[in-house]
Amino acid sequence: MRRLLCLIVLLALPGLAGAQNFIRYYPSGGLALTGGTLTGSVASIAEIDSAVGFGVSIATPPASQGMTWTGSGTILRGSPIYLQGVGGAASYIVLGSATMLSEDAANTSAQKNANADQFSRLYGANGGYWERGVNSELLTIAAAATTDTTGNLLPANAIIEAVVVRVTTIIPTAATFTVGDATTAARFATGVSVAADTTAVGLLHRNPDVAAAAGPVQTTAAKIRITPNAQPAAATGVVRIEVFFSRFVAPTS
Q: Which of 70, 129, 210, 215 could join 123 in a cystine, given CB atoms 3.0 to 4.6 angstroms apart?
């Protein structure tokens, strides 16, 4: 017996109080829609209603199937609009080809892309913006008095929110280390144990009593410096460093 495809569309008409818009779709294959394509066989379909706007819900689509809209003027209207994947905390939304918005836990949203550092920008007029982000590096601690990161993890024209570290491989010889920069050795954290899996959240620079050079304002780009309390006998220790910051860029005109 040939399966039926059923599409019911109700358009909200002016003056029709309480009118709602629906799409009900019971597919066994696919259905072409104006402006895009809806594809895939599904086990069940749910209906989503909106007093203003339009909604479609595929209740249990296979992981590799779903709905796709193409075109340069796609608009979603509703009050509210829901974008929800199947799987709860495992669901995510991809922006562009990389950045993912996901739910880490109840009432907790996250921006992530695999294991890469993330950045977000709030733009003003003429190209000025406020960027929030994180720079990170896995640093091998040299058999020397100090070790600097390869990259400038401290960006220019920024407020340093926090510097967090994890010792992934024990640092030999020394007992503790400080986290800072070339100007202030313990700008962010002090007395951090060299033991593997030790973590520290560096916030010393946020203390309002510290001198300006050791405070949160970063005027020029700089490296993070690790200073052990005793020089390591071998370059075998490893520390992961992450710098969370707010950066500001002036408009272009």
A: 129
Q: What is the tens place of the pLDDT at every residue in 142-181?
A: 999 999 999 999 999 999 999 999 999 999 999 999 999 9
Indicate the CATH number for domain 120-249: 2.60.120
Which residue ranges make up each domain of the chain?
1-82, 88-116, 120-249
* Cα distance between residue 74 and residue 34, in whole Å: 11
189 contacts: CB under 8 Å, gap ≥ 6 = 163, 165, 178, 179, 180, 200, 201, 202, 203, 204
- Contacts with 137 (C-beta within 8 Å, 6 or more apart), sequence order: 149, 150, 151, 153, 224, 240, 241
Residue whose entry in the numeric block shows the structure tokens 């399966």: 3
pTM above 0.85, yes or no: no
Q: What is the pLDDT of residues 25-41, one digit of tens each?
A: 444 444 444 444 444 44
Q: Which residues contact 211 (CB under 8 A, 6 or more apart)?
A: none
